[in-house]
Amino acid sequence: MILLNLLFNLRSQGLGVGTGEWLAFLRGLASGLVEDLDGLYYLARAVLVHSEAHYDAFDLAFTATFKGVELPPKLKDALWEWLQDAKLGEGERVPGDYESWEQLQEELRKRLEEQKERHDGGSRWVGTGGTSPFGHSGRNDQGIRVGGESQGRGAVQVASERRWGEYRTDMTLSVRDFKVALAMLRNLAREGREELDIEGTIAKTAKGGGEIDLHFAKERVNRVHLLLLMDVGGSMEPHAALVSRLFTAAKEMKVFKTFEALYFHNAPYRFVYKSYATYERRLTSDVIRDLTPQHRIIFVGDASMAPWELFNTGFGDTGPSGLDWIQRMSRKAPASVWLNPDPPRYWDHPTVRAIGNAVPMFHLSVSGLRGAIRKLRAGGTPGVGA
Amino acid sequence: MSTTFAGTARYIADEGLLADVNAAVLLGRPLLVKGEPGTGKTVLATAVAEALGVPLYTWSIKSTTKAVDGLYHYDVVQRLNDARFGEGDVRDIRRYIRMGVLGQAFNTEQRVVVLIDEIDKADLEFPNDLLRELDEMVFHVPEIDETVRAKHRPIVIITSNAEKELPDAFLRRCVFHYIAFPDRERMRKIVDVHLPNLSEKLVESAFQRFYGLRRLDGIRKKPSTSELVDWLSVLARAGVAPEELAAKLPFPGILLKQEQDLELAKAKR
User: What pTM was estimated for this model as a whole?
Assistant: First the structure.
């Protein structure tokens, strides 16, 4: 039953283990891959964990399961007993090769027997002479049998050292999530490099009665320009990591016709900044002048500030207020959204409401991002003829 | 043919890696190897092939690579050309189908090792397009309405530099191994292989600086193993005394490639 404990401990560490992976793990056990606890540790980690970020959680679950546990000398027999007890939960699927759970069990039993025979013959599955894949410190040398009382401590000790702590990342939205979302912003058009159009060539050649007529078409390229406008500093500080992930994703995409990231504090005023470290800046009016209907603006900010910071001119500037600048931008590029890292329950605030009226606002979360992208795709009559 | 991998004379792997390689071989699942650049991911496939005494097929992924490229290529232009000028038998479409790396591996009469190198270079959806091919080791060629099935399930090793996150559905089908950056003990062995005649003191104080740099807060590109080896060989040739290393960082450009990192190292000295 101890393996079930491992499964539950993994779940409680937030590592969802699928049926397919679990059965692959059991198949690995049944085929004699595992001779001791170290082997069990490596097999379980290799099959059940898919990212170094989860190694630490796995180590914790493994320690919790096997710490202080006395394993029977013949680990394999114990495993087999466990396998016989195991029942497949309702609704769980037996993987493709096997028609039923019984059949899978039968297969496991056969393989175990084969494995036993091979062992009696004296040829160990694992190597000898200190090159064994499993043993710590040459334990498998000279045919010492694996098993006994203290043999299993190695893996638990290794696991309890928690060497993978620094690789841990408990992310809400990963860079990949952002990229997948942003990839939907493609608005492909035939532009750029010419490539052979096979369909066109065949059609033309057929029409010409077999006389080859090579037909070329422009490559399909993305026409969308992406402008990322990000609020930095102050109340945005706690969200810095999340925002930087969005920035990384957008920057690495390289599918947009142009991509520009600019910064502001609280609201955009007369200037927006290319870099806050160097104060390199652009006139906001220049940015607006360059906007086309193919532009998509993603504002990122918590939108909450003192009312005068939005409704008046900011920081000794003269000219339009922050809200005016936002409205001008969204008029020029109608397909724009505002992503707010604060959850919607904080949105009942005068400045948040005012900005939300000018630009559709979405929560910076998995579902919010999806909605925002839908808005960006639909908004501002993009594409045809524009 | 041997069925287990225990490392080779030139490739020293830790036991976790060996266990994972053997698990992947036995379960018939692709082995996904991730890790910092310069931790020996690609060399692993060569070592596995060598240890098992089987051929290695390498498929290097570029940003423009598509999944079908690894399966087969249908040379339409050649066929059209032959049709026009009456060369060859154009009715036999088979003559214009060329197998890709996976296709070739499926068709060999013995088990082989297939390396899919730097899978993260390709488009986001690339791994998903290979799910069935790697799961069932089979693919369909619609042009000739034929199914190519692996005669012997190849051992598939996939490397990733983690430039892009890989999709979950793909990850679930792989055996995963992360090659950790070598600790001092292992690094010592690696250095000994490359530069056998260094003084103990120089290596010790160079390691001190090297691991110190890697631990710096906010460093953008951590120096890697190969850079350490280069740096050590320059230090030895320039005759830098081990004591000097504590006070200053000679030849910093070998270890640190980004301006910000150089500044950071200067500030923290």
Answer: 0.60
